[in-house]
Specification:
Number of helices: 28
Radius of gyration: 41 Å
Structural class: alpha+beta
Largest sheet: 7 strands, mixed
Bound molecules: adenosine-5'-triphosphate
Strand order of the largest sheet: 7-8-24-9-20-12-13
Length: 922
């Protein structure tokens, strides 16, 4: 757990000698260290959005939608690689061999900062390899520290199962590759992985809903999951569930809303879908708060069951909530796992539930409310506002939503009065009245306001806060409280009022959404539940949450196993060879009676002298031999969960588990004139009566007793699991890419930790232990048939497929031949794929040589032809020119002849004339 530890490896500068090769010593623990992947390219974004109703949804950027990268011809194909990592989790699903180094394929190498870098293997000698990194560094490393990377063609595949090498860095890289291109959804076999973009991405809205409905888009999406759920519900007549998990801020609530949006769009028409969507602002106002991890953190888990009519239209819905932190009240369909300490105190930089701030900003006049910083319950954390959120505006949205779910104006006024009473309760202070530290409440405006708001006398309120009725034998005595007891009582009252109010509101919402008369029993449930938690200090809350996750994980494992099994049986193959790791041992550690964690906790909680230390000792005494348990020093113990080891500090376990209700406070509420406090009191009394016969019942005790928190939690969890068991589940795992809630940043260590915690890597592992790669006979024959040495053109695809398997000596235990498909163990297709690629490369080379040769010959012929042609042309041209010249020459000669003749004639005539003159003697 936790972030990965960097390797203790040394980097040397390439130029600092050693032949330009930096030497690395392998990490001593054999762990290849931290995680990650490079190749970051920025995405962009814009959208019409699914999130308009959440003001907490972060910044908006302009983004282009890009198609998903995928090759339908790609298959899962990994070489048979042994594990390099000695770390527990790595070891279980790594598959690395010397294959990588032998073939000099590109590999992942872990840098000292924990990130993974793509490395090219330059040379391998013995157990060492020389690699070159993208930044030009050349390093000598232990070959075992290299993990094979996938060929480029597999970059960004939309199902992790398509990766040839299913190792952690490859999974991380694939998710990062897609995340950088705003493709936030990726499949991991049957599971959808959703990475929180922390910005609006153009993947939602009516056009997308239409496209998924018409199947014109196939890339992974919450819409696709919701669509499958609707289809399977209608076709198989089986209820469906969409189970969304992830850590705080990972995007569960947004994902649940996106799924609801799709269901509402497809099953809408009656108008009830609008009401269902409008429950979100109410639940968020009362159940969400700003925490350091998320500005809009749901402090409760919820199950929304959406019912459908025969015609596929939504006919109603029912909401169950699971508030975080401790069970206060339990009804058949309602777990309030809520310590609600946030109502009375919250950490620096965090806020209490949104509704308090919204009320102060939106309706101060009506209830004569002061500024938020005037209320002690709100001003201890120095945090009043959330950037980009207008609390007054939100208040109006909540009021509007309350109208829509038919909470009357009068009831709304009462709700706000209860909230104001909680705020004023925090301002009640106490005065010392004797020297035994006994106190009574100061009769100031706070006391008067609370009394007025809940409808009781100030004297009664004072008595309820500063005294406690005790029953000793048959006598009732009144005990005065000390300052700390009075403060505890006041805070407990505030928390109870808030918890009851939340419960009452959910009840009203459920009444309004009540399943229509024409009930078919068909439903789709969306479970938005807190994921596995492991912090520096883990307390009772993490204990309950992780126990719940352990149960959900078992549900998840079994379902996946079942799916695999069904496919194998359908195709008639021997599925008994699939290994399957169950987390039953860990669940036994929690649930076993009488020596399980929960039973021992309950037992110790019943002892008046039981303390957190005696509880821790008891655990160590009885459970030390359990392989899933380890006693730690002092009050701590460690549990080996499916997602890793978690060390719990037992401080506060007993007190939180006992969760006593004070009868005085309940009686006060029952005597109030206002109707809500009366309802709250009767609910609490009913509850305590129902559970009074539990193991914690103390005969004659003064306090109302009930089942322990852990026991209640367990029984509610069983109910929830029973409900989920009867549905076909669809899993969505939300991942938070960074802790800064900032778009574009992808912290590999953080992502890896979550992938492990939410079992995504485990899905991959489970699938790998079966026959994860599968291909139809036709496709297999088409893809690899050309590799066969003999001519198989006339044979059927199955015979061709078998011939291929024989030719490549694939061991019988590595594949199964089904009726329609071939099933392969991990890595087998990789070998074929490699041969196919090499052969294709070879063919390409031969083709290119042949084509080159042909082209050369053709070129030479052309050249010769051109030379001949040129010589003809030139000769003809010369001849023509010569002819012209000759003609001219001849013409010149003729001209010359004539000129010369004429000249001679002229001369002759002159001489002749002269001769005649001379002869005549004149
Ligand atoms: N698909 C999404 N598109 C855009 N923004 C998202 C998306 N999913 C989550 N976000 C952002 O992340 C924030 C936290 O998400 P969300 O409240 O759903 O987390 P969560 O897992 O329910 O946390 P918590 O357990 O604390 O309630 C949202 O307020 C929103 O800004």
């Amino acid at each position: 757990m936790g972030s990965p530890t960097p390797n203790p490896i040394r980097f040397a500068d390439v130029n600092s000698g050693n032949n330009g090769i930096a030497s690395l010593s392998a990490p001593e623990n054999g762990d290849s260290g931290a995680k990650v992947v490079g190749r970051v390219e920025n995405g962009v974004a814009d959208t019409d959005q699914a999130h308009e109703d959440s003001p907490y949804s972060g910044n908006t950027l302009v983004v282009e939608d890009r198609p998903s990268v995928g090759d339908e011809d790609l298959v899962s194909a990994a070489a048979p690689l042994p594990s390099v990592s000695k770390s527990n989790i790595e070891h279980r699903w790594s598959d690395i061999t010397s294959y990588t180094t032998k073939k000099k394929v590109q590999s992942w190498f872990q840098l000292p900062n924990g990130n993974w870098e793509l490395a090219r293997i330059v040379k391998t000698a013995g157990s060492e390899s020389v690699i070159s990194l993208p930044d030009g560094k050349v390093l000598k490393v232990n070959s075992d520290s290299l993990i094979p990377a996938n060929p480029d063609i597999l970059d960004g595949v939309d199902d992790l199962m398509q990766l040839s090498y299913l190792n952690e860095p490859s999974v991380l890289f694939d998710l990062q590759y897609r995340y950088n291109r705003d493709m936030i959804y990726t499949k991991a076999g049957p599971v959808l992985v959703a990475i929180n973009p922390f910005k609006k991405v153009p993947l939602y809205g009516n056009n997308y809903i239409e496209a998924y409905k018409n199947k014109s888009i196939e890339s992974p999406h919450v819409y696709a999951i919701a669509d499958t759920a609707i289809r399977e519900m209608t076709q198989d007549e089986v209820n469906q569930s969409i189970i969304i998990s992830g850590e705080s801020g990972a995007g569960k609530t947004e994902t649940a809303k996106i799924a609801m949006q799709y269901l509402a769009a497809l099953g809408g028409g009656s108008g009830i879908e609008y009401e269902i969507l409008k429950t979100n602002p109410i639940l968020e106002a009362f159940g969400n708060a700003k925490t350091l991890r998320n500005d809009n953190s749901s402090r409760f888990g919820k199950l929304i069951e959406i019912h459908f009519s025969e015609t596929g239209k939504i006919s109603g819905a029912k909401i169950q909530t699971f508030l975080l932190e401790k069970v206060v009240l339990v009804t058949p369909f309602f777990i309030v796992l809520c310590h609600l300490s946030r109502v009375v105190q919250c950490a620096e930089g965090e806020r209490s539930y949104h509704i308090f701030y919204q009320l102060c900003a939106g309706a101060p006049q009506k209830l004569n409310l002061k500024d938020v910083n005037e209320y002690k319950y709100l001003n201890q954390s120095n945090c009043y506002a959330i950037s980009g959120v207008d609390d007054a505006e939100q208040f109006h949205i909540v009021k509007e939503a309350l109208d829509i779910v038919h909470v009357s104006e009068e009831d709304q006024e009462s709700v706000f009065a209860m909230l104001a009473a909680v705020l004023w309760l925090g301002n009640i202070s106490f005065n010392m009245i004797d020297n035994e530290n006994h106190v009574e409440a100061v009769a100031d405006e706070s006391l008067i306001n609370v009394a007025q708001l809940i409808g009781c006398e100030t004297v009664d309120l004072n008595l309820a806060l500063s005294t406690r009725k005790m029953r000793v034998g048959h006598d009732n005595i009144i005990q005065k409280l000390t300052l700390s007891q009075a403060i505890d009582t006041r805070d407990a009252l505030a928390k109870s009022i808030y918890a009851c109010l939340f419960e009452w509101l959910v009840e009203q919402i459920n009444k309004s959404l009540a399943v229509g008369k024409r009930r078919t029993g068909r439903s789709i449930s969306i479970l938005d539940i807190y994921g596995f938690e492991s912090f520096g200090r883990n307390s009772f809350e993490q204990f309950c949450i992780n126990y719940a996750n352990e149960r959900l994980q078992q549900h998840f494992n079994r379902h996946l196993f079942k799916l695999e099994q069904e496919e194998y049986i359908q195709d008639g193959i021997d599925w008994a060879k699939v290994d399957f790791d169950d987390n039953q041992d860990c669940l036994n550690l929690f649930e076993k009676k009488p020596l399980g964690l929960l039973s021992l906790l309950d037992e110790e909680s019943t002892f008046p002298n039981g303390t957190d230390i005696t509880f821790a000792n008891k655990l160590k005494q009885h459970l030390n031999s359990n392989p899933c348990f380890r006693g730690e020093r002092e009050k701590a113990f460690t549990v080996s969960h499916f997602a890793g080891e978690v060390t719990y500090d037992t401080t506060g376990f007993l007190e939180k588990n006992r969760d006593l209700l004070h009868l005085d406070s309940i009686q006060l509420l029952s005597l109030c004139l206002c109707h809500l406090p009366q309802i709250f009191a009767s609910n609490m009394l009913n509850q305590s009566e129902k559970t009074v016969v539990g193991p914690l019942h103390k005969a004659g005790g003064a306090d109302s007793q009930k089942l322990s928190v852990a026991t209640n939690f367990k029984s509610q969890l069983f109910q929830l699991m029973q409900r989920l068991e009867s549905t076909t589940p669809h899993f969505i795992r939300c991942i938070k890419p960074n802790n800064l809630q900032s778009p574009g940043s992808y912290e590999q260590g953080l992502v890896l930790q979550q992938l492990r915690c939410c079992g995504v890597l485990e899905v991959v592992r489970i699938s790998r232990s079966g026959f994860p790669s599968r291909m139809s006979h036709q496709k297999f024959a088409r893809r690899y048939g050309f590799l066969l040495l003999e001519n198989v053109a006339s044979q059927d695809p199955l015979s061709v497929s078998v011939a291929i398997l024989h030719q490549f000596n694939i061991l019988p235990e590595m594949y199964q031949v089904g009726y329609t498909k071939l099933f392969f163990r991990t890595g087998q297709i990789g070998i074929l794929e490699d041969t196919r690629n090499h052969t294709l490369h070879g063919i390409l080379r031969v083709q290119s040589c042949f084509r080159g040769h042909q082209a050369q010959r053709h070129f030479k012929e052309l050249q010769r032809g051109i030379a001949t042609l040129q010589s003809f042309v030139r000769g003809e041209k010369a001849r023509q020119e010569f002819a012209v010249l000759l003609q001219r020459h001849r013409a010149a000669v003729v001209i010359q002849k004539w000129i010369k003749g004429r000249n001679v004639k002229k001369t002759f005539k002159k001489i002749n004339d002269a001769s005649i003159v001379i002869q005549s003697g004149k």
